[in-house]
Write a structure and sequence with these properties.
Layout lengths: L6 H8 L1 H8 L2 H8 L4 H24 L17 H12 L11 H16 L1 H16 L1 H13 L17 H14 L4 H31 L1
Helix pairs in contact: 1-10, 2-10, 4-5, 4-6, 4-10, 6-7, 6-10, 7-10
Length: about 220
């Protein structure tokens, strides 16, 4: 009898298509290839501020949950780095110069909703954002530095100074996912929420592209 597929593998397989759609969004492809511009990156980072504000507020609320707490680590916290990056890029008045796009409003509302009442949903969004930052985010940082002349100022969001071995950290995270004693129904719900998180991300890229055209 075949061994059951670890949950982390099933999660990746069943969200592969929507993940690929998000990664292939025109806005991000242009940004990474140099067809975009420095302001495009600032627009993206500005939306990340609102997303990580919601996610890290939810992490505080979920800190006492016995399952969610396994995944929460101060080593992952991104909001202070985003604030520092935005101050470098936009100046001291950066808070007055940014506003959430409609897709971001929907995205953050969902994070706050699950972050109040559903540990599995919170973990789905936590997984989608932070493991992405530790994986593709490192490639994005290198490309941004090459394309737009950044050193470390401006791209601190992608620097995880307290995680010396990202692969080991990610492997441990996935092992923790595999070990959670969720029912099959709950695992399906979590996978569905990860797919939804990727869709929110795609919607954000579409909003950013539309806003750029309208500007």
């Amino acid at each position: 009898m075949a061994e059951p597929i670890p949950f982390s593998e099933a999660l990746r397989e069943r969200t592969r298509a929507v993940h690929s759609e998000s990664e292939g969004a025109v806005f991000m492809q242009d940004l990474m290839s140099g067809k975009g511009c420095r302001d495009d990156y600032i627009s993206l980072l500005s939306q990340h501020y609102f997303i990580y504000e919601a996610l890290e507020e939810a992490a505080v609320r979920m800190g006492d949950d016995p399952v969610a707490a396994l995944f929460i680590s101060p080593k992952l916290t991104r909001l202070p780095a985003i604030e520092t990056d935005l101050e470098f890029l936009l100046g001291e008045s950066w808070r007055d110069r940014i506003a959430p796009l409609p897709s971001t409003v929907r995205y953050t509302a969902r994070i706050r909703e699950v972050g109040r009442e559903w540990p599995g949903g919170f973990i789905a969004h936590h997984y989608t954002r932070y493991l992405g930052d530790l994986s593709g985010g490192q490639i994005i940082r290198t490309l941004l530095q090459r394309q737009y002349g950044f050193e470390t100022n401006g791209v601190g969001f992608y620097l995880f100074a307290d995680i010396a071995k990202p692969k080991l950290f990610k492997d441990t995270y996935r092992s923790q996912l595999d070990a959670v004693q969720w029912t099959e129904e709950e695992r399906d719900r979590v996978i569905g929420e990860v797919a939804l998180a990727f869709q929110f991300n795609t919607d954000l890229f579409d909003d950013l592209a539309a806003a750029k055209i309208a500007a």
